[in-house]
Here is the input.
Amino acid sequence: MKLTPHILALLLAWALPSLALAAPLPSWNSGVAKQAILNFVQKTTDPDSKDFIPLPERIAVFDNDGTLWPENPLPFQLAFTLDELHRRLPEEPSWKDDSAVQAALGGDLPALLADHYKGLFRIIELVGSGMTTEDFAARVRAWFSTARHPRFKRPYDQLAYQPMLEVLEFLRDNGFKTFIVSGGGADFLRIFTEKTYGIPPEQVVGSNTRAVFELKDSGPVLVKTMADLFIDDKSAKPVGIYQFIGRRPIVAFGNSDGDKQMLEYTTIANPHSSLGVIVHHTDAEREYAYDAKPKSTGQLVAALAEAADRGWIVVDMKKDWRRIFPE
Amino acid sequence: MKLTPHILALLLAWALPSLALAAPLPSWNSGVAKQAILNFVQKTTDPDSKDFIPLPERIAVFDNDGTLWPENPLPFQLAFTLDELHRRLPEEPSWKDDSAVQAALGGDLPALLADHYKGLFRIIELVGSGMTTEDFAARVRAWFSTARHPRFKRPYDQLAYQPMLEVLEFLRDNGFKTFIVSGGGADFLRIFTEKTYGIPPEQVVGSNTRAVFELKDSGPVLVKTMADLFIDDKSAKPVGIYQFIGRRPIVAFGNSDGDKQMLEYTTIANPHSSLGVIVHHTDAEREYAYDAKPKSTGQLVAALAEAADRGWIVVDMKKDWRRIFPE
Here is the structure.
């Protein structure tokens, strides 16, 4: 590498903000959770600490729905999927005969989620396969640019939790590589994670399927299918982490029983120091309050019961977070 | 980020070598191939160029066998697999009745590769599933520490092509993110790619299967299976790139018809400038010479025929490379 003016500018851009940066995690109130995060980063990045972790091993994984943004009144990808179903229905008259479509149009969420989400995946198949990956991406982008959350009246991608954005940035500033490990679809997630969370597509592990490659006259395309569907939830989260990342994380943030195995994989008998965190939804006024009986997804019972034994930090959104969303 | 002494040291470590660094690609002879690589990097990293590519989009993908290291007399993973078969045979007497094992022990490579590599994958199943991912990793590490290449008499992981190591480094020095996209097994590749190529596990896309998560008394493990086998070759390479990386590359290096679709996906109708390169094995004296009739894998006919039309650079190993292996 030559030290060109361009490289020098990059170096300066990297070094200068650090000089002016205020204390980390400003949207977190003082307390056990904030202190645990600060202490963990301090001890794992201090070369003189017995808990020091070399840079390449600093892998941090984050669930998305309920951990980085809300999952109510519906997971946002489900809102997109239902909106897409309505939008395309006039041009797809045969869809009306489908029982999953009928359940979706009738707002019958329990029917969609029954039998291991069979109806939901049928809807996802209808609106999320058979087109090219670029067409799908364009539809997701169009949705984000127009749809608004029914309660918070904002574009969905402006509802990331401010305190979690600060955690992501704080970890990255300290050499951690941040990954999404979500039950949501990777194709959907990758449209907004870079802009919203600073997490590039190649660091997004989500539910996924295999596309099909075709070389058309206009150029190469990948056509979305439902082949080899991988649902990146529960026991599959460590499987997805191994398959996509290939290293054991040392930091995991989740909010539901769907994250239990990811937290276990990260924190139990890990040769490195590790940090497991559960975001507990306790703030009905500013966001939502639920655990055993969630309004949509996000049931939190088993992981919460295990937290004390495992040393997982439980974040009390109401007490620990000074604010919920960005200004 | 605070500008701690540790961060300062990192900054200096990053900046200083660049001051002393000699001209890039020293093991490349002057010629069309070297010039094409230099020109491409120059124009895509110059902010004033119409071909400038923003940092996050600088994705470069590399085939492994025959592109970054040899694939003769056998692909190295196959050498490992056969050595493992022999090593474990005494403790697995039932294996002797397996027709694939018999073909392997008899050195009958055509039989192993027939019927879409059915025999080969049976052997891979025998020596590569049923154990934990950590056990498998330990076996691969043990093999690399003892096995020697029959012709070059070196540990296999010291046979990376020196000119390609320089390409990887040159691209990374210019803000490119380098990925392996190989038909080889991701589990096998990830053991050595970080040390040998400077490519971390999370930037390795290879053939893969799904493991199974188990929480044992001793801690969490992932048990290797053959479930959902994905063979990352030919048309599957763009599929794997989309699934794992989620962006279209702008640089692709390959050496065989197995890389044709990856080269097509990278270079045809890409909105960005792109670079496709084929490493042509023309040096029987220092390495091997083959294309239409390879000694093992690596047939190169269709991609070579397409190269001129597509503007792919064909590297003539004999003429273009000053040396083949590191000292």
In short: Chain A touches chain B through 58 residues (CB under 8 Å). Residues 243 and 253 of chain A are 19 Å apart (CA to CA). The beta strands of chain A are 59-62, 177-185, 204-216, 219-230, 251-254, 275-282, 289-290, 313-316. DSSP finds twelve helices and eight strands in chain A.
